[in-house]
Amino acid sequence: MSWLIGLYETFENNQALLQAQEDPLIPICHTTQQAHIEVVLSGDGEFLRADVVPRDDNTTLIPCTESSSSRAGTKPQNHPLCDKLQYVAGDFVKYGGVVTSGFAKEPTVPYESYVQDLRQWADSIYSHPKLNAILRYVEQSTLIEDLVKYCILPVDTSGKLLQRWTSQDEAPKIFTVLPSNQAPHDAFIRWVVETPGIREASVWNDQELVQVWIDYYISNISERDICYVTGKQVPIALFHPAKIRNDGDKAKLISGNDDSGFTFRGRFESDSQAVSVGFEVTQKAHNMLRWLVRNQGFRSGDLAIVAWASVGKSVPNPVSDSTSLLASLDLPLDEPQQEPEVAYTAEEFALKLRKKILGLKQELGEFTNVNVIALDSATPGRMSISFYRELWSSEFLNRLENWHMNYAWEQNYRPRGVDKDFPYVYIGTPSLFDIAEAAYGTRIDAELRAKTIQRLLPSVIEGQPLPSDLLGATVRRATNRVAFSEEWEWRKTLTIACGLYKGANIKEGYAMALDRKRDTRDYLYGRLLAYADNLESWALSEADTKRATNAARSMNRFAQRPFSTWLNLEIQLEPYKNRLNPKITNWLGQTITEVMDLFDPDDYTNDRPLSGEFLLGYHCQMSEFRKGSPKKAEETDVKPDLDQ
């Protein structure tokens, strides 16, 4: 229940979001729907006009009940105020409207149920002038007739509602806003009541009407019990909200309506014996979670991950890459902050990261609760919490800093969501999304991607070791260079693999720059492969030839049998050496001499497979070649171009 407590407290601490102009927090006893038709009435309940609601303005806040907010099946429960035509139009059947299958034998039941609920609300002490006007109008049973006269709903030659538009002429506006699988009789209605002297006419923006419905609904909840979250005797929720990840999400985190299955049968006689949660608690917690997922969350298929502070202040998303972390969250530091510049060295990156984390600590404080939750669903109706942790803000930020520092590397790809002018070469840690693709390919199955991201979360949030199979899969893909159809994809996979291997072996103290003193066998063999690749690519560039080098084609074999493969590569390099300027060949030759001097003779002749360390030696040496030498450039007027 700790996740419910965290979300409930966050809702209570962020009441101001209920009045937000853009994307406000949904109040309890309410939900949102996409409205298609807006009907304007007078304060006396007379029809004034109607219009089709544009798609960019159709999200509408409506009152709901526990059963209507999660309605499904053949007999869906009506909403109290705004709803589809089959509920609010008394002449729906007269005009050929098709009700849901459960009401087929009694097609007037949806309308009668809606009017009965509306009348009970209007007759209570929680009535409202807008409510009375809407009730007087819907009791006249002329909504469809008025909408037809106002050219909102089209009819056929027999006067029945048109189901689809087949003419070559321009379709009526109602067809442009409805989903492709819906007909005009499925349209959702929202109300506007214009009364002289009342500024706010729309029912969804009327805060007084919103509060009236909340008070009315809670007053009618008769069942009271101990809330497992607050420990108080309060009205208990019989149903729990859905629509957590999006407006079409039917999966629930708490559900006890499986009377014939095994949700609680065999242990309890009723669902309330298993757990009881206060109505206000579950409403506020779920509405807060819905807002957080929409505004601060990460989505990948059915997976949703969000991190938040209970005080409502922004926190970094643990799934994001270093670029997003450095570019986000405008924090009040000791000096004015400019737009983050790209870090080209490890020192610059470390300085920027520490400064950002320090600013976050100043903003959040030392002991603010930070929650991280991951939601996933195996079936359309059931959702699970696959990961949940509560941490102090200082602990969360320290672990986030360690993750981005330990697994940072010189990346050779443009991260998602950045400006097109962002350079391809920068220092940082990739996002969990990109790591999953590096391990299993860009065509990775959505379910496997989600599972991979979930497996990586403990490494970010808890500082646990990187899963060894995931590291191995990334290294193997980076080694198998010929399997990539696009050079950029291989470069991206290579740099991600280097960062993961470096972070997984942090005790080795690998540097992002070339370590000329490191004499380990795998690192040195990586440098030799870079020498062969660079020399041949330079010679091919001089000859204006574009093809993969022998080193590139042999990379996977080189990783399995480095000594024997290197002997072949040395022989193949001879013709290319003869094509190059002797000064260039001599300059490059200094590298192989330097590497050979560091080898232990037994290590050099050992043909056992290489570890991922050879990728670090390869990439660092290639980066060094790319930078070139000022003295060499002055002497030869030639600079190696590895992008050929």
Q: Can you offer a commentary on this structure?
A:
Among the domains are: 94 residues, no CATH class; 185 residues, no CATH class; 130 residues, no CATH class. It is 43% helix and 12% strand. The chain has 25 helices and 14 strands. Strands 3-2-6-5 form a four-stranded mixed β-sheet. A four-stranded antiparallel β-sheet has the order 9-10-11-12, sandwiched between helices. The chain has a two-stranded antiparallel ribbon with strand order 1-4. Strand 11 and strand 12 form a beta hairpin. Helix 4 runs antiparallel to helix 5, helix 12 packs antiparallel against helix 13 and helix 16 runs antiparallel to helix 17. The longest helix is centred in the last third of the chain and has 22 residues. The C terminus is likely disordered.
Structural class by secondary-structure content:
alpha+beta
Report on the biggest sheet.
4 strands, mixed
Strand share of the residues?
Answer: 5-15%
Calculate the terminal CA-CA distance, rounded to whole Å. 57 Å
Brief write-up:
The chain has 644 residues and is α+β, with helices and mostly antiparallel strands.
Q: In terms of topology, how is this protein built?
A:
Layout (H helix, E strand, L loop, with lengths): L1 H12 L16 E5 L2 E6 L4 E6 L6 E5 L2 H4 L13 E2 H4 L20 H14 L6 H10 L4 H7 L23 H5 L10 E7 L12 H13 L4 E3 L6 E3 L35 H4 L4 H18 L1 E3 L2 E7 L12 H6 L18 H19 L4 E11 L2 E11 H14 L2 E4 L12 E4 L3 H9 L5 H16 L6 H12 L7 H18 L16 H22 L7 H4 L1 H6 L1 H18 L2 H17 L2 H5 L7 H15 L2 H7 L8
